[in-house]
Amino acid sequence: MDRGKDLAEGSSCGGDPAAATTTPSRYESQKRRDWNTFGQFLRNQRPPVALSECNSGHVLEFLRYLDQFGKTKVHLQGCIFYGQPEPPAPCTCPLRQAWGSLDALIGRLRAAYEENGGPPETNPFASSAIRIYLREVKESQAKARGIPYKKKKRGGSGKPDEESTTSSIPFS
After folding, report:
1. Which of the ends of the chain has fewer CB neighbours closer than 10 A, N or C?
2. Are 63 and 97 in contact (CB under 8 A)?
3. φ, ψ of residue 96 in degrees (nearest 5)
4. Which bin fits 158, alpha (ψ -120 to 50), beta or left (φ > 0)?
5. Dihedral angle sign, alpha carbons of residues 155, 164, 107, 33
6. List of residues 6+ apart from 146 with CB closer than 8 A
7. Ramachandran angles phi, psi of 171, nearest 5°
8. What is the pTM of this model?
9. What is the CA radius of gyration of the chain?
10. 3-class secondary-structure state, position 45
11. Closest CA to 60 of 145, 149, 128
């Protein structure tokens, strides 16, 4: 399935006009890559975890694992730049996945789980533990950068969050 991988990564179709009409959208390609990455993560666990046995704990482990590939500087409470949106100098605080990236990733995985036959009532990506984790990440990153997140009112302004970004997982 190298051709599918090529399409997902934006490679050309090799001039086949029929292939151009079946090229998945960027969202669908990213969702498939994310789903494959999560499946690989489960297979690499010791012992390997079957998708049917997956729970919110595995999803949380996966999100923490992804932090090592993050590009967002998150200042620790002891850092002199804690709470400053634009620090004047570098520091040794860790790079993490941005909240918006994790939120988008969970949305894609939640959809992929059900598209791949998982029952909605047992969807580990839709659990309250995941919602709580994402809220905590959002709040801690906002505090570390000195940016207050304001709760959106239902049916609000329709403006996207400044922090909402697309997820970028560096492997498939």
Report:
1. N
2. yes
3. -135, 170
4. left
5. positive
6. 83, 84, 85
7. -150, 165
8. 0.71
9. 18
10. coil
11. 128
